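Known limitations

Files may contain more than one protein. Parsers should not assume a single record per file. Below, a two-record file is shown to illustrate correct handling: read the sequence, read the token line, then continue until end of file.
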Amino acid sequence: MATILCIEDERDLRDDLVEELEEAGNTVLQAENGKQGLEMILEHQPDLVCCDINMPVMNGRELLHELRTKHPEFVEMPFMFLTAYADREHVLEGIRMGVDDYLTKPVDFDLLVAKVDQRLRQVNKIVDKKNQELVALYQRLAGHQQKKQSDASAGAASAPAVDQFPVSLNSIPIVIFGTIDQELRQFIAVLKESFPNITVFTDPAAYFEKLKNLSVHFIFIYGYDGDRYRELQEQLAKDSKKSIAICVSRLENGWLPKGCEFCSTGSTLTLPVTEDDLKRNMVTWIKSKLAKEFGRSEAA
């Protein structure tokens, strides 16, 4: 089921659009102008936007420009224009701005549903490809780490085949260090969308006791500062070779925990974060660890 935002100032038409899209099995949000639409996009992160062009307060072109220039996290979200003007110049202008499709008024509702389904299938293909890349990189890192451990304990051994690690996103282990607050709860909710295998530790000692039972995993460190953070990083570097440690900060006032200077380049994450941005960062972090420990060719 997809979430679609319908932005249209004509109430009767908006009601008809919502009804048709809901009957097709979608969850539909509504806004009557671009300003309300932008607020709902930022809050709800819909899968697709269907937007009128001529509206009060903020029109469709202004909304699209705002999204494409100031909110790159929504660059892959399909954006469709509803318009009574679909001449060549209007279409070219929209394409240059980054619109994905046009639907002319009066609306052909069968065509609307067909175009929405088509755009959502395209997005799903992109998401699946990115997920496959993340899983493949994780498999490669897990394989190299197992070989490295085998070499250290029993002499040289052949590299394990990638298919010895038949993981999905659901099975990639996630560890969180920190005290639970609202900010961290929201981050965990984002993680659980794709990574339900999450363990939260408020005491690092408990983590190190269970470390031997963990495969390659991500560690998100939240709310540690100063000497406490530095000591944890040093212990991770010494005893947790199978981890990718990430320092989590909050966006408010540009706040970063004191001690983040001990993070290696690229090993930080600023909240709030979208699921898509999180996965993109995870790919980068795995590639960085592969390049650092096993050579740049392994991160290609």
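...continuing to the second record:
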Amino acid sequence: MTDWRAIDAAIAKATGTRFEAETRARAGGGSISAAYRLSGAGEGYFVKLNRADRAEMFAAEAAGLTELGQAVGLRVPQPITHGVAGEQAFIALEHIELQRATPAAFARLGEALADMHGIVAARYGWDRDNTIGTSPQANAPHPEWREFWRENRLAAMLDALAPTHPELAREGDALLAVLDRLLAGHTPEASLVHGDLWGGNVAMDANATPVIFDPAVYYGDRETDLAMTELFGGFPPVFFEAYWGAWPMTAGYRHLRRPLYQLYHLLNHARLFGGHYVNESRRLMRALCAEA
């Protein structure tokens, strides 16, 4: 049973104003967490619930949203509070009435994302680990992009898959052996990236301002965000025209780095869902090895 009184009290403490929800309505929040819209005294909040042992996942989400809040030209839900109430972890965010993004909003998103990628750090990674879906995502900082992508992304995911999918691990070892060649000469800035920028994590608000949410934040190659936007579709041509117009594409993205960066997300889907994602990951690893 959800301890709503404790969640109301946590919101009141965080905002400094008395809050007691008058209505609690289920909301769409994806397949990972239960989601609700809380309303009372003219205020509204978006609350996600999960198992108590996933409290750190919500803490990292709150930190990631705060990090993305540096961006201009787009909107990010403001985290209000998070913690554990009874047997459940929770996170409360400002409630935004989301709408399906229009082509004009996607064009604004493209420009704003390029601007956000101009926020850079000294090293690749972040000051805390987080999750990609429910999978742990290691963000220990590295001074070299190739090593960060090798150790914190591909090797970490392949190691997690090895007990159930040894064939992926074997083909992954072959890919890791040629990774230096695939990324030779590529030294991108450590840009602030959303980390999980698929179409389900993009919308717009009532003012047609683009909104991004549910991040897996770190500092890395900006092209990782672009690769994810192209993996599952949902982003219209005006988005890419606006982005590449603001920050032009560099050589090697299309045929080398895009599939290499998409592989991480395919491996994560293989880890979470199995099925055809396993075969698709294997196919992509073989193709990348052939390119090297």
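Parsers that stop after the first record will miss the second one. For reference, the second record is described as follows. The chain has a mean pLDDT of 96.
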